[in-house]
Design brief:
CATH architecture of chain A: Alpha-Beta Barrel
Largest interface: A-B, 72 and 70 residues
Order of helices and strands of chain A: EHHEHEHEHEHHEHHEHEH
CATH class of chain B: Alpha Beta
CATH superfamily of chain B: Metal-dependent hydrolases
Distance between the termini of chain B: 33 Å
Radius of gyration of chain B: 20 Å
CATH superfamily of chain A: Metal-dependent hydrolases
Strand order of the largest sheet of chain A: 1-2-3-4-5-6-7-8
Strand content of chain A: 5-15%
Low-confidence stretches of chain A: none
Structural class of chain B: alpha/beta
Structural class of chain A: alpha/beta
Number of strands of chain A: 8
Shape of chain B: globular
Number of domains of chain A: 1
CATH topology of chain B: TIM Barrel
Number of helices of chain A: 11
Radius of gyration of chain A: 19 Å
Strand order of the largest sheet of chain B: 1-2-3-4-5-6-7-8
Helix content of chain B: 25-40%
Mean pLDDT of chain B: 94
Low-confidence stretches of chain B: 3-16
CATH class of chain A: Alpha Beta
Number of domains of chain B: 1
Distance between the termini of chain A: 29 Å
Oligomer: heterodimer
Largest sheet of chain B: 8 strands, parallel
Largest sheet of chain A: 8 strands, parallel
Chain lengths: 352, 369
């Protein structure tokens, strides 16, 4: 492993809503009544089955407590041992999965207010992402505008798979609002499950579902670039969260080659996709789907062709690594410093 | 990528001094449906004329995304009066002789019956495609070998088609498309793999297809460039399904060739699968080895469209990681994103590596029949 530097910025941790009841104080009377009257279930996505090994590290599981739902445990498991100065909370409660746009907006609002009160008010090292009802970009923009005055929110959170590819003009109001407020766009693994997670249908195994997230990120990146999101919003920073990153070089080689052959289809693209990624896209380091040897890892880092792309993350409480082995072997000390401090500071304008 | 054409192309004779090549992805094309009539029952000729092919997509004719070039083809690949890939004499001169191609693998993709919604009609057209290949291409040209076009969504019909040509040395592969209508590792497809393995034939999986689902898990993208780039992701899911469902455990002699989907993505996928499968192995007790080992032992990839990093030497690292014995040179003739053997490798390579890349790997895989 490579040694961490103290005071690092952890760009992907997952405080969890313990249960729907915890949101009651933050919901309007109408939605509280609906929960009871309709007997609503918890909004936990199939993307993280409760007892799946990936969902929480064994030593981070405590009997009777939903992993990620206790601030005290977060401090004890992640903030303290990794000597974290700032950690960005990405809440994955499945409000973006609801088919009702109104319900999505009502619950997203509650999640954000719960986050501010139950986590940000209690722990000064925490920052958070704004959960938005991506089901309806107008409602999402309303929520961004409502929450943005609270500067502890540094990012807008989207899932990588929604109704439509994320570059589509349909979603541009969200990007305009984020750029206006100096918020990054964080795109996290996960799906609203409007479509099968693979282009060849619903897979049999959870293993395939999680593997497919990397392909979904590749396609989301193609979509954001090809539609011209970064031409229209040149200051926008997009952060890929829990995406894996070792797929990036090969994907950009292919995308850039096809861009050279098919520029007439996307004439607004004034730069090669490789260049756009260097200026506008960042990726978190967990999970690291790295090669088996350190030597190969170093070659791969050369293929990445920039030391500004990667952001430190633990992905707490998901089980991506053991002990304090959060950085794969093969990162140079200067790159570790960039990943843990300089790159996050440059990515999130609200951190400075 | 597309080539510049001159008004007066210079005739090029066969150049025997050039390195001999095998081309593992050549697309023959019929000029019109009448070319299949000799091989179809009257009933299906009438059906074709009345209802058309009806794949799982919106348009009667042409692709869902307009291509980058007419017929997705090189501008100089149109024979007089015909469509690109429709004339054997023209192909001989422009492709086989020019590239000193000694083994050319035909993949008769396009409107070929494989994913018609009417399965019975689709099976009839697949069979007609095979007879057409045999009589119009394989019997007249000894350098060419065919891929058996099978209606893989109907495993029983596909098996029947494989068994029909299993002992015909003109055919060296079973052809599927990558966009299946369900994950291809699932049980409904196993008989296809068992029949191919029993016949000693690799299964070639060519990019494209009409499974009916969007090419991304997030829905339909806007552009042809996304559809094209998306074949890499689609093939990643294809391979993931084959590995995780345990197809290579069940059919240990199966050989899989991924065609026209790129290759540089493979190492990262293998690392990811190893990591995830290890963590989640309680879910897949039928797997006895790490995913990367199944991939290494069972998977080949064609080279076109060759990835092109800014530092072109980087692509050689990717080949090192996959294995130089696993890549099969292909041009994708007559399509617009053709790779030219004279330019495809970024730098001079040792003679042996070059011969493996351009010829020996393909001969070892396909040439034993």
């Amino acid at each position: 492993m490579s040694a961490i530097v103290p005071g690092g910025i952890d760009c992907d941790i997952h405080p969890a809503v313990p249960n729907l009841k915890a949101l009651h104080p933050y919901l309007t009377d109408h939605w509280r009544d609906i929960i009871v009257q309709r007997g609503m279930h918890e909004l936990n996505s199939i993307a993280y089955p409760a007892n799946s090994p990936l969902t929480a590290r064994p030593d981070w599981r405590v009997e009777g407590i939903r992993p990620g739902s206790s601030l005290e445990l977060l401090q004890q498991h992640a903030l303290n041992p990794f000597k974290t100065s700032i950690a960005i909370a990405n809440c994955l409660y499945g409000v973006q999965l609801l088919f009702s746009e109104d319900m999505g907006a009502g619950f997203a609002r509650a999640v954000n207010d719960w986050m501010a009160k139950e986590w940000l008010d209690k722990e000064p090292r925490l920052r958070a992402s704004i959960v938005v009802p991506a089901q309806n970009p107008e409602m999402a923009v309303d929520e961004i505008n409502r929450v943005a005055p609270d500067k502890r929110f540094v990012q807008v959170l989207l899932l990588v798979m929604n109704d439509m590819p994320l570059g589509k003009r349909h979603y541009w109001p969200i990007y305009a609002a984020a750029q206006k407020h100096g918020l990054a766009i964080g795109i996290h693994a996960g799906s609203a499950y409007r479509h099968p997670v693979t282009p060849i249908g619903w897979p049999s195994y959870y293993t395939e579902d999680y593997a497919a997230q990397a392909a979904a990120f590749q396609q989301a990146l193609s979509s954001l670039i090809c539609e011209g999101v970064f031409t229209k919003f040149p200051d926008l920073k997009v952060v890929l969260l829990e995406s894996g990153f070792t797929w990036l070089p090969a994907h950009l080689w292919r995308l850039t080659k096809f861009w050279r052959g098919l520029r007439m289809e996307v004439p607004w693209l004034d730069r090669a996709p490789t260049e756009i990624v260097k200026s506008n896209v960042r990726l978190t380091i967990q999970p690291c789907d790295g090669p088996p040897s350190e030597e190969m890892f170093q070659i791969l880092m050369e293929h990445m062709d920039s030391d500004e792309l990667l952001l430190f993350s633990t992905d707490y409480p998901h089980w991506q690594f053991d002990g304090e082995d959060v950085l794969p072997a093969g990162f140079s000390p200067s790159l570790v410093r960039k990943m843990m401090i300089d790159n996050p500071m440059a990515t999130y304008s609200r951190l400075s | 990528m597309n080539v510049q054409t001159t008004t007066k192309p210079l005739p090029q004779a066969a150049n025997q001094s050039k390195l001999a090549t095998a081309d593992c992805d050549i697309h023959p094309q019929r000029n019109n449906d009448k070319a299949l009539h000799p091989y179809l029952e009257q009933r299906w000729i009438e059906h074709m004329q009345m209802f058309g092919s009806r794949p799982r997509q919106a348009y009667q004719a042409g692709p869902a995304y307009p291509k980058g070039q007419p017929n997705a083809s090189r501008r100089d690949a149109w024979p007089a009066g015909g469509r690109p890939g429709s004339s054997l004499p023209f192909m001989r001169e422009q492709l086989l002789d020019t590239n000193n191609c000694v083994l050319g693998i035909l993949n008769a993709t396009g409107d070929n019956g494989q994913s018609y919604q009417n399965r019975e009609f689709g099976a009839a057209v697949c069979h007609a495609m095979n007879e057409w290949q045999l009589h119009e291409w394989l019997l007249p040209e000894p350098r060419l070998r065919g891929s058996i076009v099978v209606p893989y969504e109907d495993a029983e019909a596909a098996v029947a088609e494989i068994e029909l040509y299993a002992s015909d040395p003109h055919f060296v592969q079973v052809l599927m498309l990558s966009r299946t209508s369900e994950p291809p590792g699932q049980k409904r497809y196993w008989k296809v793999y068992e029949a191919a393995a029993a016949a000693g034939l690799p299964v070639g999986v060519h990019a494209f297809g009409f499974g009916g689902y969007p090419v991304s898990g997030a829905g339909w993208p806007s552009y042809y460039i996304e559809d094209m780039v998306g074949h890499a992701q689609s093939s990643q899911s294809f391979l993931t399904s084959m590995v995780i469902e345990g197809v290579f455990e069940r059919v240990p002699t199966l050989k899989l060739v991924l065609i026209e989907a790129g290759f540089a993505w493979l190492p990262s996928l293998a690392w990811r699968l190893d990591k995830i499968q290890n963590r989640l192995r309680a879910e897949t007790p039928h797997l006895k080895r790490p995913p990367s080992e199944y991939i290494h032992d069972h998977v080949w990839l064609t080279t076109q469209p060759m990835e092109e990093p800014a530092n072109r030497a980087h692509v050689l690292d990717a080949i090192d990681w996959i294995g130089w014995d696993r890549l099969l040179f292909a041009t994708d003739y007559p399509h617009w994103d053709y790779d030219d053997p004279a330019h495809v490798l970024p730098m001079p390579l040792p003679e042996q590596k070059k011969r493996d890349f351009f010829l020996n790997n393909a001969v070892a895989l396909y040439g034993q029949r």
